[in-house]
Design brief:
mainly beta, four-stranded antiparallel β-sheet
């Protein structure tokens, strides 16, 4: 098992006896220094794991299930991402949206090179720019949804540019903190004040569930 902790990534292994919790040991394995806000396994490459460090530490990649790590130098240091994502239709496309409003890093070659865009995303210079989560529609990978402190944002060009989604029907504040698509393309979203609902039109309108 892998766990993202405040000072890096740690792995858990079971003792030879296979007994109670005290027989499990934890070992720090990489991407050390500051918060580790996101960890994701590559959907098709066995053993490949990606992690985001805090600002000033950048992105990290492992090809041996997290035993060793290398910094993704092309991504830059100030790219703390709470929502590293692989495109479900083309895993060579990787999204690393910056939590602190520095835009979206996007790679189309498996992380070798990256392009950065802030097009349409909130970059107002305060907490309203915080980007918490990202979801890619499984039935149409051109649709990408970003959850931010200042609303829900939608891309129809696979994350190159965004515009704010109306998100009508969902009460509460404007701070979206979690988004996820169901396999059939229904979008679920939650807010920092506990409001939660689902949308069948990519965030234009919601049916409130909580």
């Amino acid at each position: 098992a892998l766990l993202a902790a405040g000072g890096g990534l740690i792995s858990c292994s079971k003792g030879s006896s296979g007994g109670p919790p005290q027989d499990y040991t934890w070992t720090q394995i990489g991407a050390k220094g500051g918060c580790i806000p996101s960890v994701v396994f590559h959907p098709t490459k066995t053993g490949e794991v990606w992690a985001s460090g805090d600002d000033g530490t950048g992105l990290y990649k492992s090809t041996d299930y997290g035993t060793t790590w290398t910094a993704v130098s092309a991504a830059g240091l100030n790219q703390s991402s709470y929502a590293l994502r692989f495109d479900p239709e083309n895993p060579d496309i990787i999204f690393a949206p910056n939590h602190f409003g520095r835009g979206m890093l996007r790679s189309i070659d498996g992380g070798v090179t990256w392009t950065s865009s802030q097009a349409g995303l909130p970059i107002v210079g305060n907490d309203a720019q915080l980007l918490w989560d990202l979801a890619i529609k499984p039935t149409d990978h051109n649709i990408v949804i970003a959850a931010t402190n200042s609303g829900l944002f939608i891309s129809t060009d696979n994350g190159i540019s965004f515009s704010q989604a109306p998100a009508t029907g969902l009460t509460g504040n404007s701070q979206f903190t979690a988004v996820a698509y169901r396999s059939d393309g229904v979008l679920f979203a939650g807010k920092s004040d506990g409001a939660f609902g689902y949308s069948t039109d990519n965030g234009t309108s919601f049916t409130q569930a909580l």
